[in-house]
Every structure is written in C-alpha cells, then in structure tokens.
C-alpha cells in the first residue's frame, strides 16, 4: 500500500533528512552521540563537539538526524561510511572531506526535567529557545497543515521525503510506531528479475539487464511480502532452481517483480528496496 502525502490541520510536516537517527546528549561542555540502538558514535563525528556552545541549556537530550549535506542534497552513503569508521586518521580525513550536520527536530530532556510528555509545539518552542543553529547543527523547519506542498518541494529537490507529526497531543514516545509520526517517502518503482532467494529470513535476490544484455545484481529484497505471496512463490519456484551457494538458491531469471526503493548507491545497487508485487 502506497502512503500518499496529505494536508491536515491535525498534523505538522517536516522535511526528512537522509542519514542516521541520532540522540545527542549534552552535559556541561561534554557531548555524546548515540544511535537509536544505543551505540556510541561520538568519536566518529568530532565536529559535533562544537555543538555544546550552540546549546544554552547545561543538560539536554536532543533527537535528530545526522547527515552529510552539500550542494543542496543529502549524501547518505557518505554519512553511513563515516559512522562505521574506527581508524583515527580516517576519521579526521573523512571530517575534512565530508563534514556532517546534526539536524535536530525534538527535545527529550532539559536541565533536570523530562520534556517527553509536553505537546509537540511546546517542545518545538523549547528547541528554538535553547538551540542556536551553526555550521554543524540545523533546526529542522516545519509547516502546519500543508503536507502536499512540502512533499512536492522535497521531491523537486531530490530529498528523501517528509514526516507528518500529529497535533496537538503528540507526546514523545520512545521505540513506538503509531500514526502520531508518519514517514512519507519519495519512492522509485522498478520492475526487476528474480535471480535467487533465501528461505530464512525470506528474501529475494534481484537484478536487471544492462545495456549490453547482461544480468546485473541490484541487491536483495527483504521487506513488503505478505505470507500468501511467499507461499505462492515457494510453491512454483523449484522448477527454476539452478545452483545453491552459501544459503542462496539461485534460479533461472524467468520470474519478475515490482519493487520500490529510495535511490541507487554509487555502485548501482537499490537502496532500501521493498517488494510491491509479482509481475505475471
């Protein structure tokens, strides 16, 4: 099911930065940066230490997205690569080549008090009161009610999409998915050939024909399947089996499927592909 943009006075809408979701903790002059899974990535982004001087509160926890942004677009692969570095020399070189920005959109805690039960607009007010934008920190802008217009603007810019956040009682919830926050992304749709599959976890290996008529591997698709679609596929695919290697059953490329994805990597692979339907 495709999630479409909408207008509603019950929501505010933000552009979505394309990077890693991060929590930034400030205590005095100390900055620590965590992923949503609790992994510390402070040393990977030394430029974030300068953010302490841009935050007026002594103790604060901010929610946002870390991303590499230049030439008016987001570069996911650059940030993703930086977040995985451990070598100090490579970290310094990556900082110089691809500096990161913390795009902050919410505040969880300030100076001894939780902000999580406050209304969303109250938290936005606090955020603007305590955060001063700078070279490595930006406050994510928002509009109330007009999601379709923002959707069209971000699409024209080639950005990932928008986030719709429910008003007025949008209390902050950790690790909870609901209609309070809705991601509406700019998906690209493509028809691909099925080259192989894996049973557990279930995923399809997909590819396409290049300009020379050769099959090119585009990646694996793990999401978007209904159980009945998996069952039907596993029932008919044995007749197409060829080789099996490292847990992957390769098949003759006779079956095709439609997938959606955000964009292509620098190597041409599909980024975050999701299954839509089999093509009959």
Automatic annotation (TrEMBL):
InterPro entries for this protein: DNA_ligase_ATP-dep_C, DNA_ligase_ATP-dep_cent, LIG4, NA-bd_OB-fold
Protein's UniProt name: DNA ligase (ATP)
Gene3D superfamilies: DNA ligase/mRNA capping enzyme (3.30.470.30), Nucleic acid-binding proteins (2.40.50.140)
Domain ATP-dependent DNA ligase family profile: 93-234
Recorded catalytic activity of this chain's protein: ATP + (deoxyribonucleotide)n-3'-hydroxyl + 5'-phospho-(deoxyribonucleotide)m = (deoxyribonucleotide)n+m + AMP + diphosphate
Alphabetical UniProt keywords: Ligase, Plasmid
Enzyme class: ligase
Pfam families per record: DNA_ligase_A_C, DNA_ligase_A_M
EC number: 6.5.1.1
């Amino acid at each position: 099911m495709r999630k479409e943009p909408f207008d509603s006075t019950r929501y505010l809408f933000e552009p979505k930065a394309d990077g890693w979701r991060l929590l930034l903790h400030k205590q005095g002059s100390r900055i620590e940066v965590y992923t949503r899974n609790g992994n510390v990535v402070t040393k990977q982004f030394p430029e974030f230490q300068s953010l302490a001087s841009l935050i007026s509160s002594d103790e604060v926890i901010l929610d946002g997205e870390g991303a590499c942004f230049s030439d008016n677009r987001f570069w996911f692969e650059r940030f993703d690569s930086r977040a995985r570095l451990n070598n100090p020399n490579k970290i310094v070189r990556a900082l110089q080549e691809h500096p990161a920005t913390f795009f902050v959109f919410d505040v969880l805690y300030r100076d001894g008090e939780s902000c999580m039960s406050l209304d969303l607009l109250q938290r936005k007010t606090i955020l603007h009161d305590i955060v001063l934008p700078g070279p490595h920190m930006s406050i994510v802008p928002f509009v109330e009610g007009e999601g379709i217009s923002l959707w069209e603007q971000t699409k024209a810019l080639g950005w990932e999409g928008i986030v719709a956040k429910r008003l007025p009682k949008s209390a902050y919830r950790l690790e909870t998915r609901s209609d309070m926050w809705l991601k509406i992304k700019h998906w690209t749709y493509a028809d691909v050939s099925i080259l192989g599959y894996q049973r557990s976890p279930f995923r399809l290996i997909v590819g396409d024909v290049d300009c020379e008529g050769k099959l090119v591997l585009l990646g694996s698709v793990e999401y978007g399947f209904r159980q009945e679609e998996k069952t039907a596929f596993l029932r008919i695919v044995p007749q197409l089996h060829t080789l099996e290697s490292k847990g992957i059953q390769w098949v003759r490329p006779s079956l095709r499927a439609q997938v959606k994805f955000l964009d292509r990597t620098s190597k041409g692979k599909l980024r975050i592909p999701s299954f839509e339907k089999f093509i009959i």
